[in-house]
Amino acid sequence: MKVALVGNPNTGKSTVFNLLTGLNQKIGNFPGITVDKKTGFCKLPDTRTAEIVDLPGTYSLYPKSKDESIVFQVLADRNNNSHPDLIVVIADATNLRRNLLLYAQVADLGLPTLLVLNMADMAKKEGIAVDVDKLANRLGIQVVQMAARNNEGVELLKDAIANSTRISTQNYSINVNSFAPEAINAIKQKLNTANDYYALQVLHQHEHLANFTTKEQSEIEEIERKFNFDSSKLQGEETVARYRHLGTILDGVVTDTGAAKKFANTDKLDSILTHKVWGFAIFLLLLFIIFNAIFAWASYPMDLIDAGFGSLTEMGHEYLPAGMLTDLFLDGVVAGLGGIVIFIPQIAILFAFISILEDTGYMARVTFMMDKVMSKVGLNGKSVVPMIGGLACAVPSIMAARNIESWKDRMITIMVTPLVSCSARLPVYILIISLIIPEGTVFGIFNTQGLALMAMYLVGMVGAVLVAWIMKFLIKAKERSYFIMELPVYRMPRWNNVFFTVVEKSKTFVFEAGKVIIAISIILWVMASFGPGDRFENIENKYAAALADTTKNTQHIESLISSEKLENSYVGILGHWIEPSIRPLGYDWKIGIALITSFAAREAFVGTMATIYSVDGGDEDTDTIRERMLSSINSRTGLPVYTFATGISLMLFYAFAMQCMSTVAIVYRETKSWKWPIIQLVYMTAMAYFAALIAYQLLK
C-alpha cells in the first residue's frame, strides 16, 4: 500500500513522517528530477506494510517552484512510481481555513483521501476547538486529530490508514466545470477521464507533466487557444470559490475563543528577535554559541576516538604479522577511517543546532531579517535558506534554491552557496585551528579556538555576499524579484526530529564522505609506499651500514629512511611537481598532495594527512596525526611547516576553493549547462589562491 503525505509547509508533515517510519526511511530523487524524495515504511495494525512518501510542502496544487510542481505530477500520473493508493493531507489545526484549501484541491482529484488535524495541542492552548465528527461528516472522509510533537495520535492515524478504502468517499467541493466547460469537456474526452478537476489541472499545468508526449502537449495547447483558456484568471476565480465553500464547511465546526491573544507571545518575541539591531546581534550570538559548543562539547568524545584509533594502530603493529597487507590496513584503511570518525561528535552538534533553529521557527525569522540585506547584493530573503543550509552541505542547499522564483536571484544563490563553509570544511578547520591557535579563553568565557572557527565561517559568509554583489551587475535579467513567506509561530523543538536529523546527517557524512576518503586513503597509501625504478632500493642501501651498526640509534635512522622513501614515492614526486606553484602560499609538497586529493572531497584533507604522516612516521611511531603535523619541519627553511601564517593561508584556501566534485555535478544538473559550474570552479579557485597568497605574505 502506497501512502502520500501532502501538506502546507510548517504543518509538522515531516514529524508525522518520522513518527510513522522511524529510522526505516531513505532519501533519493524523484525520477528525472533532482527534487528530494523521502520514503519510508510503516507497519499497520492489520500486519500490512505501508510505503509512505513524503511529498514536498506546498500551499496549493498551483506550483510556485520546482519542488511544489512535484505534488501534482505524482498525484496526477498513475504511471508515476510514487503515485499513491491513499493521500493523507496534514493540516495545521490552528489555521484550518487556509490549510483546507490544499485539501479541497487534492480531494477533488478523486483519489482516496483522509485528513489529519495536526498540532491539536497547540489549538487547545490557543482556545481553538474543532468538532472532528462534524467536519468528517461534512467532508465525507476520516479525520484524525494528532499532536505529532508529543507523539499523540499516531496509532489512530495508523488505524485510519489500515481502514481506508481504495474507493474515494470524499464529497466534492465546488462545481469545477463551470469555470471553463468547453475546454474541460474537450480534455476529458481526449484523456478519457470523468474527473473535471483533473482535466482543469491538466489545462493549467500540462507543461509540468512528463507523461504527455510532445504531440499531446501541442493538442492540449490547441484546446487552450480554441476556447480562450485564461489560466491566471481562472486560478483566482477557483481560489475565491473554494474559500467561500470552506466558510460553509467550517461554520459551526471551528470555535476560536482565543483569537485575540493567539499570536501575542510570538509577537512579543518577534519584537526582540527580528529587531533591526538586536535581531542581528542575537543571531551573531547564537552563531558564536554554536561554534563554541562544537569545540567545547565535542573535545572529550574526540579525544576518546583519537586515543582509540591510536591504540588500535599500536596493537595492530604489535600483534599482526609485519608486511604489506598489515601496513595497507593500518596506515591506509584504519588511518583514513580515523580521519572520518573523529569528526562525528562535531558534525552531530552542528546539525543538532541547525535542526533546533528550524524547528522552533527561528530560522524563518533569520530569512525575514536578512531579506533587506540580501536584496542590496542581488539576492532575496529566500537565498538565506540555501546559504544557511550550506553550513551543512552545498549539494542539497543548491537544490533548495529552486524555491526562489526569480531566475537571476536563483542563479546568484547557486553560484555563491558553495562559498558558505559546509560540514566538509569543518574537519579541516578544526585540525588546523588545533595546530595554530592555543587553547584558552577570552574574558574567561569565550573559547579562543571557538572564536577562530566562527571567524572562518563568517569569512565564508562575507565572501559569498561580496561575490553576490558583483554578480548582481554581471548577470542580466529583466524580471523583478519578490519575497513572500509565512512566519510560523514559535514552538518548542521536536526532539525526535532533531534526533532523526542528526543520525541521518551523521550517517551521510560517514558513509558518503567515508567511501571517498577510504578510497583516497588506499590509493594514497599505494602511491606513498612505492616509487619508480630502484629509488627505494638505493635508499635502503644508503642506510644499510648505519642500520647494521648497533651503537647507533636505529629508530632515528628508520625514521630518516621512511621520510626519504615518502619523498621519492609516486605521491612525493607529484607533490614536488606542484610545489613551486604553492610555495608562495607557505605550503610544502605534502600539503600539495592534500590539495590535489581534496578536489574530490574537501574532507579528504584530513584522511590524506593521516595517511601521509602514518607512512612518514614508520611502524614504530604511534604519535597521533596532530602531534606528527606539529613536529613536521620544512626541509627548505628548517622551520615548522604549520606556522600561524601557513595555517591561516591554508584555511582561507579551503574557505574559498571549489573542492567538491559533487557540487560541480549538482550545479550542472540544476542549471542544465556546463557554463555555470566551469565559471564557478575557475572563480573560486582563483579567489582561494589569491586570498591564501595575500594572507601568507602579510603574516609570514
Summary, kept brief:
Strand 5, helix 3 and strand 6 form a beta-alpha-beta unit. The chain is of the alpha/beta class and 700 residues long.
Give structural notes.
This protein has 700 residues and is of the alpha/beta class. Among the domains are: 2-162, Rossmann fold (3-Layer(aba) Sandwich), CATH 3.40.50.300; 177-248; 501-699, no CATH class. 61% of the residues lie in helices and 7% in strands. The protein contains 31 helices and 11 strands. Strands 2-3-4-1-5-6-8 form a 7-stranded mixed beta sheet, sandwiched between helices. A hairpin with a 6-residue loop joins β2 and β3 (36-43). The longest helix is centred in the C-terminal third of the chain and has 35 residues, at 495-529. The protein is elongated and about 100 Å long. The chain starts with a strand and ends with a helix.
Q: How many helical elements?
A: 31
Strand order of the largest sheet: 2-3-4-1-5-6-8
Structural class: alpha/beta
Query: Averaged pLDDT, please?
Result: 81
Major beta sheet summary? 7 strands, mixed
The rounded Rg comes to 30 Å
- Let me know the number of strands: 11
Question: Low-confidence stretches at least 5 residues in length (pLDDT < 50)?
Answer: 29-34, 618-622
Euclidean distance between termini CA atoms: 66 Å
What characteristic shape results from the CA principal axes? elongated
Helix content: 55-70%
Task: Report strand %.
Answer: 5-15%
